[in-house]
Amino acid sequence: MYRFSSVYLNPKGSPIRALYKHLSEPGMISFAGGYPDPQLFDVEGLGAASERAFANSKACLEYGATEGTPRLKEAIVQLMHERDVHTTPENIIVTTGSQQAFDLVLRVLVEKGDSVFVEQPTYSTNIQAVQAHQAQVSAVPVTAEGMDVQALERMLASASAQGEIPKLLYTIPNFSNPSGATLTVERRIRLLQLAVQYQFVLVEDDPYGGLRFSGDAVPSLMALASQVPGAQDWVVHMSSLSKIVAPGLRVGWAVAPVEILKRCSVAKQSADVGSSPWVQGIAAEYLASGRLNTHLGHICAAYGAKCRALAHGLRQELGDAISFHEPSGGMFVWARLTGDISAAELLTHAIARGVMFVPGEGFQADGVDRFTLRLSFATPSLEEVAQGCRRLGEALTAARAARSPQALVA
Ligand code: PMP
Question: CA-based angle 154:183:117, to the nearest 5?
Fold first, then answer.
């Protein structure tokens, strides 16, 4: 009846949203969503920022500039400066979450059939975003030290031999969703050199960089681009207030070369005219209040404790049935079941015991590894983390029992 576009004929949707219905089950402990802990929101600071923003009610209630209000753009310049990225308001577009920034970048750069490289595993929604633009997606493997840049080099050499150099490479270099991995400085530099050599746009998605709870900060690709001749022309940096302040604001941004940015601004006009000036006012007031750094100290300590509790609980309850690297920031542990029980099989038994996680297949462009899973430690309390791990241990025992010959006979 309806003649849907081929892209939305049978859309897959997010693997996380598919689990939503179980979230409201009584006593459910969720390691599934990448949601900040609502107990940690700076409600007082945001409430006060909101009141100050609305004092300028006429500006809040009117349409604003498509690329963002000057005040918020200035505040973002300042925030980026603190992160060693020296930029100007002309190089910034404010977006409705960093999710929109990626959509705009894809709109202005990617056409049907173009080659786009992503990491494997990577953020599931952005695999879908690339697929929605009908690009050819190629997956670059990730190790504990982030993207395997040597594998990338090989892929680029062979793509170049076939005249199919990617237009764009999408990476989450800090505490990646879902892998938790952080790209080393050496690999970052090499990646920048490759972007210059092969002339592809390097899209750096960095919503989690502010959430480091151990080890030393690593400069962003955009900060390092000034050290690699020509690289500044090839990096687009996206970030967001979602994970460090509150996702309900829906405030994100991109820092990019002007040639790319001015086209993103035209694309944004037809997407939403502009992000809410009211909410941008709240974000600008909040950033100007100087509360962010104290708040970050507070939430990083809390997430660090939860991450350690999860790592401890997994080791204690699942032992060598699971392998993973403990991240130094962010919200996610990426794990692999070492036996023959798949993540989906474990999930069925886990949900029955009141605990949830996301099977890893949705985070893989080619969806081949059925034994991986993503666990987020951000939302549950410390007690819930420990309890959730006990339930996971029980779920594994149940999954094994359901497989055993006796169970089959009985
Ligand atoms: N990129 C990554 C890697 C994410 O994990 C998320 C949120 N889960 C986003 C982008 C989108 O974030 P937002 O639109 O809220 O800024």
Answer: 45
Torsions phi, psi of 38, nearest 5? -60, -25
pLDDT tens readout for residues 186-243: 999 999 999 999 999 999 999 999 999 999 999 999 999 999 999 999 999 999 999 9
pLDDT score for 23: 87
Query: Do 212 and 67 fall into the same domain?
Result: yes
Could you tell me the residue range of the domain that residue 128 belongs to? 56-292
**Residue 84 — φ and ψ, nearest 5°?**
65, 20
Contact yes or no for 102/238 (Cβ under 8 A)? yes
Q: How far apart are CA 167 and CA 120, in angstroms?
A: 18
Average pLDDT, the chain: 96
Tell which one of 123, 170, 203 to mutate to probe ligand 1, the residue whose CB is within 8 A of the most ligand atoms.
Answer: 123
List Cβ neighbours of 174 (8 Å cut-off, separation of 6 or more): 182, 183, 206, 208, 209, 212, 218, 220, 329, 330
Q: How far apart are the C-alpha atoms of 315 and 391, rounded to whole Å? A: 13
CB-ligand 1 contact for 205 (6 Å cutoff)? yes
What's the rounded Cα separation, in Å, for the pair 293 and 272? 31
For 74, other C-beta atoms within 10 Å of its C-beta total: 17
Total residue length of the chain:
410
47 within a domain of the structure (yes/no)? no
**Can you name the residues that pair with 94 across neighbouring β-strands?**
253
Distance 75 CA to ligand 1 centre (A): 20
Residue 64 shares a structural domain with residue 207: yes
Q: What one-character DSSP code corresponds to residue 138?
A: E
Residue 191 CA to ligand 1 center (angstroms) comes to 22
Q: Report the pLDDT averaged over residues 128-155.
A: 96
Calpha distance 408→410 (Å, rounded): 6
pLDDT in tens, 36-45: 999 999 999 9
The domain tally of the chain equals 2
pTM: 0.96
240 lines ligand 1 (CB under 6 A): yes
pLDDT for the residue numbered 406: 65
Question: At 407, is the pLDDT very low, low, confident or very high (cuts 50, 70, 90)?
Answer: low
Per-residue confidence (pLDDT) for residue 405, from 0 to 100: 66
Give the end of a domain, one of 277, 292, 307: 292
Nearest residue (CA) to ligand 1, atom 5: 177
